[in-house]
């Protein structure tokens, strides 16, 4: 490439130094030197210039081939993209279907588990209610038996007091000198018998009230236990283990001891 510029410089110098032809702007140049310089210039030109000329000569064909190749590449890319999109869409639909099926199975399992929990809780609540009813019947029956026994004892005591009072009254009446004292004693004995009878009746009522209070505590504890179980079912923590209210048995024993005294 340096030789090209050098040859051009020499040709420019020859033209500048050439003798002019008046009155024109033409000049006389040495033909041989110019031809030699042109040959040197032709030889100095690189092969890329010829290649570039060939490209220029065939540019329309090259551009057409390039456009055809580009169109083919675009069509191939579009077909590949459409195929990839269809495949991705089919895969997405398959994944969504599997996810829906798995979610439905999970929901069905959860519902079945919830139904089992509710059934177990219902059965346990029914058992608790049945136990409470049986215990209520037992406590009420025992309270009635104890009340009847205490009432019979009170009646027997009252009758004995009446008999004793009448006997004492008759004995005192038989003694004329102590008639007034006998009457007073008889009245006192009768009043004492009535007081004893009232006391026994009051104790009997107190005992029955205590038994009913125990049963009320038992029912209250059972209702609270059932409420806790329902709350735990609603919060999803599972079926609770029901147990009597803490301290209920100790309070029952203390009441029985107070009644025994």
From TrEMBL:
Q: Which UniProt keywords apply?
A: Coiled coil
Region described as Disordered: spans on this chain:
229-261
Q: Does the keyword Coiled coil apply?
A: yes
In which residue ranges is the amino acid composition biased (Basic and acidic residues)? 247-261
Q: Any coiled-coil ranges, and where? A: 78-120
Protein name (database record): DivIVA domain-containing protein
- Protein's organism: Skermania pinensis
Q: What is the lineage of its organism?
A: Bacteria, Bacillati, Actinomycetota, Actinomycetes, Mycobacteriales
């Amino acid at each position: 490439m340096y030789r090209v510029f050098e040859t051009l410089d020499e040709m420019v110098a020859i033209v500048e130094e050439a003798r002019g032809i008046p009155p024109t702007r033409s000049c006389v140049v040495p033909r041989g030197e110019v031809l030699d310089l042109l040959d040197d210039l032709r030889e100095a030109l690189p092969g890329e210039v010829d290649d570039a000329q060939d490209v220029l000569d065939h540019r329309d064909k090259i551009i057409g081939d390039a456009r055809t190749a580009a169109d083919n590449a675009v069509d191939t890319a579009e077909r590949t993209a459409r195929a990839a999109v269809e495949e991705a869409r089919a895969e997405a639909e398959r994944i969504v279907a599997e996810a829906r099926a798995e979610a439905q199975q999970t929901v069905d399992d959860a519902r079945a588990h919830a139904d089992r929990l509710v059934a177990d809780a219902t059965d346990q609540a029914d058992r608790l209610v049945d136990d409470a009813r049986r215990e209520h019947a037992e406590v009420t029956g025992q309270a009635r038996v104890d009340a009847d026994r205490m009432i019979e004892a009170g009646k027997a005591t009252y009758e004995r007091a009446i008999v004793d009072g009448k006997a004492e009254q008759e004995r005192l009446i038989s003694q004329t000198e102590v008639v007034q004292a006998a009457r007073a004693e008889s009245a006192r004995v009768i009043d004492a018998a009535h007081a004893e009878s009232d006391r026994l009746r009051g104790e009997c009522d107190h005992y029955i009230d205590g038994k009913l209070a125990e049963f009320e505590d038992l029912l209250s504890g059972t209702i609270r236990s059932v409420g806790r179980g329902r709350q735990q079912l609603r919060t999803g923590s599972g079926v609770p283990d029901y147990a009597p209210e803490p301290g209920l048995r100790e309070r029952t024993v203390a009441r029985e001891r107070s009644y025994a005294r």
